[in-house]
Prior knowledge:
The complex is a heterodimer of chains A (292) and B (258). Chain A is an alpha/beta fold.
Amino acid sequence: MNDLATYNFAYLDEQTKRMIRRAILKAIAIPGYQVPFASREMPMPYGWGTGGVQVTASILGPEDVLKVIDQGADDTTNAVSIRAFFQKVANVAVTTRTKEATIIQTRHRIPEEKLSEGQTLVYQVPIPEPLRFLEPRETETRKMHALEEYGLMHVKLYEDIARNGHIATTYAYPVKVEGRYVMDPSPTPKFDNPKMHMSEALQLFGAGREKRIYAVPPYTDVVSLDFDDHPFEIQSFDKPCALCGAEDVYLDEVILDDKGGRMFVCSDTDHCEDRRACGHAGHMLARKEAAE
Amino acid sequence: MSTLPLLKVNDVSKFYGSRIGCRNVSFELYAGEVLAIVGESGSGKTTLLSCLSTRLMPTSGIVEYHMRDGQYRDLARMGEAERRFLMRTDWGFVHQNPADGLRMTVSAGANVGERLMAVGDRHYGNIRATASDWLQRVEIGVDRIDDQPRAFSGGMRQRLQIARNLVTSPRLVFMDEPTGGLDVSVQARLLDLVRGLVHDLGLAAIIVTHDLAVARLLSHRMMVMKDGAVIEQGLTDRVLDDPREPYTQLLVSSILQV
Ligand SMILES: Nc1ncnc2c1ncn2[C@@H]1O[C@H](COP(=O)(O)OP(=O)(O)OP(=O)(O)O)[C@@H](O)[C@H]1O
Ligand SMILES: [Mg+2]
Ligand SMILES: [Zn+2]
């Protein structure tokens, strides 16, 4: 355990944490605005969410309880190693249960369980700039944000409809925050967009490679962009979760065998387990129990 | 039609360090009027056009625009947000190279619709209908609405660029060598189209060209530039048929010989 002593609490030195906290405060003060920060090298590759890790490291205290999810699950490689990292460098309590966590670091999902005041959701963001796909020049995108010139966002949605007959964007679906800044919610499914709106929890976004932090403070308006005649809609699923029977949740497809057998289950594993513990059962579970 | 000029240009000069871009240019442009700026390469045509359209800041002099609210505004003193708004609503800018004025990786329909969306149009069906209408007006088949300009010929691209600019019903359009890189037959068709649109829409336009035939066909008035200065200006027919300055005479005769 000697090597622990060589790390500062939560890995980053206090100087760096202060710098990142200043960026976070600024981001909270200007909801949806991307604040540049001096991103540090972390002992993991960029694709692993170094932006989110730096944000978490800067806000983490010894009393915090940390949950880490990737695609909604606590047990994927990425989630497991980030959780282990913070256990090692901060010795904080960890959990898989949404309601017990004070800080939840995520890639791809917002938990199904409604977050509450005092909780902070930290997103790992690969590409923070929503205008990037049509305007590669950074100087120009900054100007567009400053002058609130967001026509391009609708050009993208127009293209979507022209090509597919409907808005086919399902991930990283752009939103307008507090009536001002257009923001990329990172690669979460648009299913989760409504959860960002008026959330009681603080939402922080960290992009390591692109060196940007942005935020949605609690109780902030978050509106998904759309057209009057093609209004924003979330994905809907034909069947409830095969394991817990939940409806109105985001489902992942699971392949059961090589004969085309498959089922749809909650992507939020904690939510699914919680429901099953409370006695809910989907058709796969009911069938298994009947067989036993 | 208003009797007040749309654009008032007073003693505009632009220096690139010690090199003259254009100097001491003054004129007024009225609504619905088409002005051609002609002159040999390096005479300052593009520099002047850039100063008028706020793409460049003049070193000295004032350019004032008659806003829709009836007020004159000094363009150099306008805030950037307002200036950019003006540029994409009340003005158009047609580049010589269509790739500079188009988004090459989005469809023709979105290229035309972009300005509408920029000013807050949020009805897909209406945007598409307006885009279709404009494609027809610039003689592009409506069946090409979902194609990207990358798949268009040079002439089609230029017509698309024009549609993209005119969709918000601007009052003033700047064009820098709009027929520049095109074949002669394609040029003729484009010129006919531009002439028809300018006439039908009552547009004011400032067209830079080194081609006197373009000036003859499109413009009511023309200015001849040499070494950054306007050396002669007047009604187009008068200047071309009865040039007063020796340099203009040379220019006209050399063209006629070609
Ligand atoms: N960015 C610049 N920096 C320095 N000098 C410039 C710049 N742009 C133009 N000039 C100079 O200003 C003068 C006018 O150039 P301008 O491009 O306005 O001419 P033009 O009439 O448009 O020519 P062309 O017909 O070749 O397009 C020339 O001497 C040119 O070399
Ligand atoms: Mg030029
Ligand atoms: Zn479930």
